[in-house]
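Input.
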Amino acid sequence: MNDCQLRALLERCTKEAPDDYARLRIRQLPKVKRGIAYVECGDPKGRPLLCLHGLSVTGLCFEQYHDDFTALGVRAIAPSLLGGIYIVDSRKNIDNVTSEIVELLDELGIHKFDVIGFSWGTLPELALLARVPGRIGRAGFVGAMTPITFIGVQQIAQFKSDIRITLEMVKRMPRVHRIVMWLFCCLPRSAFINQFKDDNLPAREVDALATGSEFSKQFLRCLKECLRTGSQFLTDGWRMFLDKPAYALHDLANHVDVRLYVAERDNVHFLYFSELIAAASTGTHIDDVCRSVAAARANEAKQTVSVFDLVYAQEQCTIWMIPDAGRIACMLYFKEALTHLLKETC
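Output.
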């Protein structure tokens, strides 16, 4: 039934925008008894790379990197986890999403893979790191997040006010939040772009958010695709951020090559999230990681690769900072992170 529902959604959406769905496929997952939509890009015989999208876009957002995937010799698999061609289910959590991802890879005959996620997509990526570390080669986190149960009141207080209001509303009044999000989605699409605008943005971000820029056109195209089937994903996405995960931080301790890409002035994807993941992945105390990062940031002779400064390195875990960048860096610098993850060695 789920498979039929997905195909009906795809047929309806394809009539509206046929070019958007040329690479989209649907696969039935017998174990979880669900269907899943995904995009496949790049070299069909290349190195498998799982791509996990953030909130307000779907797996289709990775289509723009098709030529880059091909040049890197990558077979990119990008499931649509929330929004777009998916079935709304207010009971689903990150653990369910992760089970679907694992079964999709099994169905495609992919055992060993690399993974890269940005923003909300790093939540299921963390769960994969806990559940199937032996199958992961390299893991890139661009603008990493962690479940809110892993952070303290101090970090929550640092969120932008609109994020704090959203979290409180989703926690206490999810139905009201759904209505508010539906009304918000009725506003001009520029309202979504405006939420990324902060004071003192660096020039590249100002240009990217300008009307008619390539970045804004791509983002709004992906957002429009995401909204064709409603706005429920916005509430569900934040709810999953609030859910208690099925793993503990110490479950992340493994020998996966973990690379965390952070923006220096991001007010949503905090540096602390990446520091927390680094501490868990290496079995290091979080205070020691924070001190090491602070010392590296103050060192004018720190190592720079591409647009990233290396601010932490222990075992196979590294943190790379984009100086002066803000919230949209997790999307704006995705290509640089992708190239660094797959080509550079630490």
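The two ends are 47 Å apart (CA to CA).
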